[in-house]
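Thanks for the sequence, V.! I ran O-antigen ligase-related domain-containing protein right away. Repeating your input here for the record:
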Amino acid sequence: MFRLTSARTTQRFSTLPLLCGILFTSLAMNNDIFFIGAGGFKLSPFDFMFVGMVLFKVLRLADPRAYTLPPPRITMLLFINALVVVYLFLVSGNRPGIDSGDVARDIRIVLYFVVTPYLCYKDIDSADAYRKLQWALVITGLAVSTIMLGQQVVGFNTAEPLRDVSLGIWVLPLSIVSLLYFRQHLGLKPRTAYLMTLYMLMALVFSLNRSQYLQLGASVGIAVLLGSRVGAFRNAVKIFVPAAVAGILLFASIGYLEVLESRVLTVEALDEDSSYGARVEEYEGQMDLFRESPWFGHGAGYRSWVMGEQGFELSTFAHNSWAFYLMKFGIIGTVVIMAPCLLLMLLSLGRRYADPELELHRRYLIATAPVYIFIDSLSGGLAYAPKTAFTGFLLTYCLSLLRNDVRAPAAASQASTPVVVYPIRPPVSVPPMRAAWPARSDPRSIAPARPASSTPPRLPHHG
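Predicted structure:
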């Protein structure tokens, strides 16, 4: 059901490489050595990727097809998204005591996951494009793991273990699940996938981050349940379980199991945990500010501190995204910003796709995206630009599935035709990765076989 782009202009200015670049640079290159100071905030490599995507969209406006409206379900989301952007700029004007650089910094955080899906989703229109997305996830996971394991080699110590708080660690559960679902699509042998899984599992465990442990367990469990018909359970038994066992033996051999037991299984006294106390104080301070202006918030760029200006800055450092957005934008602003993104996920992931390839990607996203967004948002994920850029990548992935499903146009054409002898079959390309999956007549296939049609409908490639 994948449309193959044929327009030379569209191929030349595709945003897909930049979208994959945003994923890699926001997670694997999230380091001060790559940042450039600019006013009140630092420009990162993924900022230039985002600007490049906007530039590509502007250049593609010369194509007459750029003005063709997408299907109604996409047009509705696009219209709501435009209202969100307009609202953000209307409520983020100059205010006394608020620096314009701080305003730009906060607006940037929101635009990355609100706007990116509508800049890039049309360029994910083939099996090869989805393969590139999966390769980007796996390569980013391997790069993040290499950086983290390199730090462990230099500073390994079981008495004072090194805890890695890198933002890139959040991609590792998604990368591991990618190997369970798309090993054959990526052309990887079981042994190679096993070594990659073990490599990323080691980095994830060494991070000593309990949130990622929870995310990995939830994502793998959901992925196995949803992917039993496409081999995910078999891959989990052949790849993930042996990698987990090998990891346990490895950590036992270096005396690291006690460190993990202390971190995961032992409940420490909260009043002795300085990190916990600081987070409670941050949360209470943000909620106090929220109660001062509950409906519209204090606005983008607003700054405040807890424990004085030498302490934590509540306006830019938040361990709870929802408290952060309520304090900045109030109840109305938070609903306006978050509701369209939630609607996008519900529309794209809440429907079963006839094409087995799209259905496979839908199940992958169900197992990974909501788990990541929910768990990470409770620890401030939607309040940091690198993580909102990653969230924009995932929402783009979701929106592309909704766009590539052509059941709605097919149903409309059938309804407008007085007599239809055979049902219309959506266009199906035969990508190289098709050979790795059972034919439509195979009972293990997700979707049943449907009669072929000599004139399959095509979606216009707009913009």
